[in-house]
Amino acid sequence: MWLLRPPGTGFFDKDQRCAVEALFDAVLPGGPRRPGAADAGAAEYIDRLLAMGPETHPEIPSWRLAYPVLLAALDTAARRAHGGRGVAELDRAEATALLLGLAAGTLPDWPGAALAQPAAFALLRAHCIEGCFGDPRWGGNREAVIWRWYGYLTPAEPFTRPTTATADRPGESQ
Question: Could you tell me the pTM of the whole model?
Fold first, then answer.
């Protein structure tokens, strides 16, 4: 059987990791009766993946270059639009609005030479989805929470947010 050897550390610094968590939560929000990106540990997935080398995936070097630029540009856009608050400080509705601007390519002062806005959004969304629905061995889909909720491999299980999980973010609807 193939076994994944995860890296000893992640790729992101603390602020970048918090920003990725907030963005992924806006891409795939959870609720009291459904798991989301935070419940699945999707940010952990991309943090671990980027800490691996190109032998794991040939696009990792380009993602390593893209993410710091992408996160810094989103943080700048968030601070301008939300009175100095960065991405990690936004509620879900504000983070969603930021991502909608990114997907539409309408965020001002974007470092376009690094990564076009729609492509940046596609990258974030794809990695969030991979982190939520992928094999838990890769660091996401913690304890196969989303697979179990959908009934993949086992009968579907109801989801109840654990009391130790992160509190619901403002702007969440059930």
Answer: 0.84
